[in-house]
Design a protein that fits this description.
heterodimer; A: 114 residues; mainly beta; seven-stranded mixed β-sheet; four-stranded antiparallel β-sheet; 0% helix; B: six-stranded mixed β-sheet
Chain lengths: 114, 115
């Protein structure tokens, strides 16, 4: 079974631009979560989608948004990029919307904002 | 708010020794703790889960303990190998059921096993 895939793997943008990241969950998984990972803050929860609905959102500004499609694939968007948005963005999928389900992480998208 | 701390940013040990990583938390006791392994350039990989009513969990060379009195979890790797070198993250869950957003991660401990 293929794992979680994320595209692109690397991205370089400049301040003020916007970016869209994509995540394909493991086949059959319906829940997708997004995380931001930085050396200073560690792994921080952005949002979670299940059945095309956002079920939970972390403490991030409205510039961060996401969506999920009917095939469970998900995208996240960051508008008006700031230098501090440079991070590894990780997507994780799980079978269902249940916190006891194991999460399977993708390799991440490394975003650099210049 | 709940805080989770992994005491060491880095841990260096000799091959064959037991590596012990520490995860401490403040405030309320979590429903359970998870441990993940993360290699450079990759996402975290789930290793073990231990619930609040469990004292110890084992999986091959891995052992996790959970002490709700000390508010601490210890993660042991016995007979460590250079291939065990990675960053290990602990994460705690505030309650059962519901969103994965209730999972709070520590910043990780980078383990280096020297041959």
């Amino acid at each position: 079974k293929a794992g979680v895939t994320q595209t692109p793997r690397y991205l370089i943008k400049t301040r003020g631009q916007q970016v869209t990241l994509s995540c394909s969950p493991i086949s059959g998984h319906r829940s997708v979560s997004w995380y931001q990972q930085t050396p200073g803050q560690g792994l921080q929860f952005l949002f979670e989608y299940f059945s095309e609905t956002q079920r939970n959102k972390g403490n991030f500004p409205g510039r961060f948004s996401g969506r999920q499609f009917s095939n469970s694939r998900s995208e996240m968007n960051v508008s008006t990029l700031e230098l501090g948005d440079s991070a590894l963005y990780l997507c994780a999928s799980s079978l269902d919307w249940d916190s006891t389900d194991t999460q399977y992480f993708g390799p991440g998208t490394r975003l650099t904002v210049l | 708010s709940q805080k989770i701390e992994q005491n060491s940013e880095a841990l260096n040990i000799q091959e064959g020794k037991t590596a012990t990583l520490t995860c401490n938390y403040t405030n309320y006791s979590p429903a359970y703790l998870q441990w993940y392994r993360q290699d450079p350039g990759r996402g975290p990989v789930f290793l073990l889960l231990i619930r609040e009513n469990e004292k110890e969990k084992r999986k091959e060379r891995l052992k996790v303990t959970f002490d709700t009195t000390l508010k601490q979890s210890l993660f042991h790797i016995t007979a460590s190998q250079p291939a065990d070198s990675a960053t290990y993250l602990c994460a705690l869950r505030r309650g059962y059921g519901g969103s994965q957003g209730n999972l709070i991660f520590g910043k990780g401990t980078k383990l280096s096993v020297k041959p």
